[in-house]
Amino acid sequence: MKKQKLILISFFFLIFNNISSLSLEDNNLLISGKPKIIDGDTLKINNKKIRFSGIDAPESYFFGKKQLCILNNVEILCGKLSKEKLIEKIGNQVVNCRIEKNKDQYSRLIGECFIKNLSLSVFMVKNGYAFDYPKYSNGKFRKFQTYAKNLSLGLWQMQFEYPWIWRKKNR
């Protein structure tokens, strides 16, 4: 009964007040709202920074540096490209994020975010603008990465370094 009341209250505020919401579902924190996109794998809803769990996207700004990829001998700001793809996908839609219990090393919330029933993590990896992050994913997004790689989608048509390797070199 408590869960039903909480869901109804959240629904009421979303529909009638058009504000972001926080709620609990099956002991997971849910955050919903129109996001500000920080990076290809990070957004902010209601002043809460959320890092997508299990994937990694190129850096658009990391300690003052921007990650580059190479396409036909031309340098591409691939972090910016990844961020723009996420902005384009989300548009003006509401995003719902299921937040995990633990935060990351930068104290960001970690979770998987959705537009309706579409996982933004799956979308980014399957289209080649982010990568399965084996250290944290347990291979959850591997098949989507293989799909993008096999079809040379997104960053797979360029020369790049995986973001976790690039960050290690650029700290």
Question: What's a concise summary of this model?
Answer:
The chain has a single domain (about 1-170), classed as Beta Barrel (OB fold (Dihydrolipoamide Acetyltransferase, E2P)), CATH 2.40.50. It has 6 helices and 12 strands. It has helices at about 1-15, 80-90, 120-125, 135, 140-150, 165-170; strands at about 20-25, 30-35, 35-40, 40-45, 50, 55, 70, 75, 95-105, 110-115, 120, 130.
Which CATH architecture? Beta Barrel
Radius of gyration: 17 Å
Reading off the top of the CATH hierarchy, the class is best stated as: Mainly Beta
- Averaged pLDDT, please? 88
Q: Globular, elongated, flat, extended or rod-shaped: what is the shape? A: globular
* Tally of DSSP helical segments: 6
Pattern of helices and strands: HEEEEEEEEHEEEHEHHH
Low-confidence stretches: 3-20
The end-to-end span amounts to 50 Å
State which percent range the strand residues make up: 25-35%
Structural class: alpha+beta
Total DSSP E strands: 12
Look up the CATH topology.
OB fold (Dihydrolipoamide Acetyltransferase, E2P)
Largest beta-sheet details: 8 strands, mixed
Number of domains: 1
* Helix content bin: 25-40%
Summarize the topology.
Elements: H1 2-17, E1 21-25, E2 28-33, E3 36-39, E4 42-45, E5 48-52, E6 55-56, E7 68-71, E8 74-77, H2 78-90, E9 95-103, E10 109-115, E11 118-119, H3 120-126, E12 131-132, H4 134-137, H5 142-150, H6 163-169
